[in-house]
Write a structure and sequence with these properties.
Blueprint: H1 2-23, H2 49-63, H3 69-93, H4 103-124, E1 128-129, E2 139-140, H5 145-163, H6 169-188, H7 191-197, H8 208-226, H9 235-253, H10 256-262, H11 264-283, H12 293-299
Antiparallel strand pairs: 1-2
Helix pairs in contact: 1-2, 1-8, 2-3, 2-8, 2-9, 3-4, 3-9, 4-5, 4-9, 5-9, 5-11, 6-8, 6-9, 9-10, 10-11
Length: about 300
């Protein structure tokens, strides 16, 4: 019901918000250095991530147990990272500052939000580190849980942000991740099922299924408007919050390695940028025609 509600809210408010963005000329600024095929997308309404945030929030008010701390952790991740993305989009599109929020301030904002989430999760969940197919924890992270959680949450947020570069790409992949994490949230939050499957049991995390359901529904609705040819882009408002939520949920469920597997394309996109920068600084040559990786494939035909 959370998924269906969020889906229908997105269908109802989507066209209205897209028309408003068009009327205010809040459109995508396409860089000249990118693939030339993208120049035709210049002026397409962006900041569409707000559509998803609104529909998820409304759906949660109707269907989630608001006395569950994990709902509020996910909600905080969504609003915190969404606000950082909104600031970046606002500076680029409204204030016409092409650089947007500087990398330093963006990272600082991510650190502040992630630190709060990491400490919150440290109090609510075990600090054990698990690997897929191992029934027992590999080791206890102890106080290193917090920096580890920071790495996962910030890394996930930026990986989704880097992937958001083609119509339907980031949201299509996000639906797969959200659906998978939603299933594992249900399994991890049920003591009998968790013991039977020999996966870590974390009390209360079953309610995250409702959040991920709402996210999946809103994402599916957004895909309707974002599929090629895109009527709206999610902007940093959407991509940063999606990645931030995925990282937060993975840490809560002890499924950090699973996130790397199910979000493998996000990982590949981030790694392609790191490799391209390091290799270019070292040799002056490029590994890929352009990074992130989807641009390389695009330029390769």
């Amino acid at each position: 019901m959370a998924a269906i509600t969020a889906l229908f809210i997105t269908f109802i408010i989507g066209p209205k918000i897209i028309r408003y963005l068009k009327s205010k000329k809040i459109g995508q600024v396409v860089r000249e250095i990118g693939p030339q095929t993208h120049l035709s997308k210049s002026g397409t309404p962006t900041m569409g991530g707000g559509i998803m945030i609104f529909s998820i929030a409304l759906s949660l008010l109707l269907w989630a147990r608001l006395d569950n701390p994990f709902i509020w952790i996910c909600f905080t991740a969504m609003l915190g990272f969404g606000f950082i993305g909104f600031l970046d989009d606002y500076l680029k599109l409204i204030k016409k500052n092409t650089a947007g929020l500087s990398a330093r301030f963006k990272l600082l904002g991510q650190l502040l939000v992630s630190s709060g989430l990491a400490v919150w999760l440290w109090y609510l969940t075990p600090s054990d580190f698990y690997l897929p197919f191992f029934s027992s924890p590999v080791f206890d992270l102890g106080v290193f849980f917090i920096p580890f959680a920071l790495l996962v949450i910030i890394g996930s947020s930026n990986a989704v942000n880097l992937t958001d570069g083609l119509d339907g790409l980031a949201i299509g992949l996000s639906l797969l991740v959200a659906g998978t994490l939603g299933i594992f949230a249900f399994l991890t939050g049920n003591k009998m099922i968790a013991e039977y499957l020999k996966i870590p049991f974390v009390s209360g995390t079953g309610e995250i299924t409702v959040f991920m359901g709402a996210l999946t529904g809103s994402g599916l609705g957004f895909l309707w408007f974002n599929a090629h040819p895109a009527e709206v882009f999610m902007g940093d408002t959407g991509s940063l919050f999606l990645g931030g939520v995925f990282g937060t949920v993975a840490v809560a469920l002890k499924k950090e390695v699973l996130l790397m597997l199910v979000g493998g394309i996000f990982v590949a996109e981030a790694v392609s940028v790191i490799l391209q920068v390091l290799f270019f600084k070292k040799t002056g040559k490029r590994i890929f025609k352009m990074a992130p990786l989807h641009h390389h494939f695009e330029l390769s035909g």
